[in-house]
Amino acid sequence: MNNVLSIILAAGQGTRMKSDKVKVLHHVGGRPMLHYVVDNVAGFSTGTVIIIGRQGELVRESLEGKANLKFVVQEQQLGTGHAVMQAREEIAGHNGPVLVLYGDTPLLREETLRELIKTHQEKKAACTVLTTLVLDPTGYGRIIRDEAGYIQRIVEERDASPEEKRIQEINSGVCCFESSLLLEALAHIDNKNAQGEYYLTDTIAYLNGQGKKVFPYLIDDFYEITGINDRINLASAERIIRNRINKKHMENGVTIIDPATTYIDSEVEIGQDTIIYPFTYIEGKSIIGRNSIIGTHCRIKDSEIGEAVNVLDHSIILESKIGARSNVGPFAHIRPGCLLETETKAGSFVELKNSTVGKGTKIPHLSYVGDAIIGQDTNIGAGTIFANYDGERKYQTLVGNKVFIGSNTTLISPVKIGDGGRTGAGSVVTRDVPEGTTVVGVPARIFVRKER
Ligand code: UD1
Ligand code: MG
Predict the structure, then answer these.
(1) Closest to 97 (Cα-Cα) out of 117, 71, 79
(2) Residues of the chain with CATH 3.90.550.10
(3) What gap in Å lies between CA 12 and CA 102, rounded to an integer?
(4) CA of 210 to the centre of ligand 1 (A)
(5) Ligand 1 atom 3, closest CA
(6) What one-character-per-residue DSSP string does 314-330 give?
(7) Among 310, 335, 367, 431, which is least packed, fewest CB within 10 Å?
């Protein structure tokens, strides 16, 4: 299966979201809902056309970098049939199945779409419609079948008779057409209905009239086809997507102590035997190695955590990299741009920003480290402050290997501490400290020179 043209309708307003942002760009599981739909069809589509309208430019930007996408603008939203008509050229240039789906159905699974197309091809159908049975079909198009079980037509809620409204089989909105028949049918629909719209669903009755067969492909899972219309739907979809993500990680050997309170974005990767404690968020494109522990109430965003790392409770790690066998937290705040090499420690109430911490270096308690490069096997005593800001500009601090910074030292940057340098407790370091030298006091003066 590799000759499918996919058309994703994403031009609608999404009025019920009550948002300045177009609906399909609202996030589910950490990324825009439209991206799920685009990724679902990418595996089998030769091309994907996205029908955009309101905030179309933002939609296009959000998908930058994804292959084989074409954007077509639907200036006025005159109905689903009218939307598909905007891709007339692409349909005409394609010979094979055309899959039509909506940008607001992130719960649809790729396997379902593949099965739908497979059925469509096996049955040599003119069109195959993904349908499901629901207890309350209000709002959906109803499937009218003939005696043989084929779909005769689809009637929209507002055009349905009282008997038709009782039908519980509904149109999901996902259908697969033969390209030439779709074009032909689109040319024959009108907007003479309760909503004054060009309904894509009217193509079904037309095809029937031409003696063509329209098959239903009935699935059990109603949730898969539910579109997101408001923030309440958004929250339900979020829960379902989070469950799926957590399940995938657990199947891969990650322990999630309480999946109900663990929030992992869809692109996160986690190694085997890692344990995630409750109330933790792992966001963006984060990667966590094997055998690590992520404590409770942590937030990790767009970061890379190595193997056997211990992130203790209440720590925040943003856009940073933590090397293998390191310890972070509890209550650590690792701000963007940090690189902690292997076997490092950023302990309780430590804040780091835009800094590199060399292998084996420890910052165990109550420190602020900003714009610093610290070497290996150095110890930064409790309460040390890297004073990187003079009120106007930020400066860098360089700390060498095997340095010992005494408790409550303040390093007034720009300043450099040479390898093996030491500062006494409470020193305020305003000048560079040469290699192997100990400084003390306020301002810090040389106490012991390096032996030669
Ligand atoms: C549609 C179906 C209905 C089905 C339901 C499933 C039609 C006529 N009706 O109804 O049978 O049960 O979906 O959810 O197809 N869109 C555009 N341009 C337009 C109009 C819509 O891009 O001019 C997009 C919307 O952004 C949305 C999708 O198409 O993603 C569906 O449109 P919507 O107005 O929500 O259709 P429904 O009335 O829900
Ligand atoms: Mg809808």
Answers:
(1) 117
(2) 4-225
(3) 10
(4) 25
(5) 141
(6) S-EEES-EE-TT-EE-S
(7) 431
What counts of helices (H) and strands (E) characterise the chain? 10, 42
| Ligand 1 atom closest to Cα of residue 171 | 12
Q: Are 255 and 275 in contact (CB under 8 A)?
A: yes
Q: Whose CA is nearest to atom 39 of ligand 1?
A: 140
Which residue lies with its CA nearest to atom 25 of ligand 1? Answer: 12
List, by residue range, all CATH 2.160.10.10 domains of the chain. Answer: 253-449
Strands 169-178 and 97-102: antiparallel
Q: What architecture is the 253-449 domain classified under in CATH?
A: 3 Solenoid (2.160)
**Which helix (DSSP H) or strand (DSSP E) does residue 348 occupy?**
strand 345-348
Calculate how far, in angstroms, residue 349's C-alpha sits from the geometric centre of ligand 1: 51
* Ligand 1 atom with least separation from CA of 14: 26
For residue 82, how far is its CA from the centre of ligand 1 (angstroms)? 11
Closest CA to 380 of 340, 434, 414: 340
DSSP track, 149-210: S-EEEEE-GGG--HHHHT--EEEEEEEEEEHHHHHHHHTT----STT----TTHHHHHHHHT
Residue ranges around ligand 1 (CB below 6 Å): 9-12, 51, 74, 77-80, 82-83, 102-104, 140-141, 154, 156, 170-173, 199-201, 227
Each of the 452 residues of the chain gets a pLDDT tens digit; together they read: 779 999 999 998 788 999 999 999 999 999 999 999 999 999 999 999 999 998 999 999 999 999 999 999 999 999 999 999 999 999 999 999 999 999 999 999 999 999 999 999 999 999 999 999 999 999 999 999 999 999 999 999 999 999 999 999 999 999 999 999 999 999 999 999 999 999 999 999 999 999 999 999 999 988 899 889 999 999 999 999 999 999 999 999 999 999 999 999 999 999 999 999 999 999 999 999 999 999 999 999 999 999 999 999 999 999 999 999 999 999 999 999 999 999 999 999 999 999 999 999 999 999 999 999 999 999 999 999 999 999 999 999 999 999 999 999 999 999 999 999 999 999 999 999 999 999 999 999 999 887 76
Active site residues: 365
The CATH architecture assigned to 4-225 reads: Alpha-Beta Complex (3.90)
243 CA to middle of ligand 1, Å? 27
Q: Which atom of ligand 1 is nearest to the CA of 82?
A: 23
Mutate to test the pocket of ligand 1, among 37, 74, 80 (most ligand atoms within 8 A of CB): 80
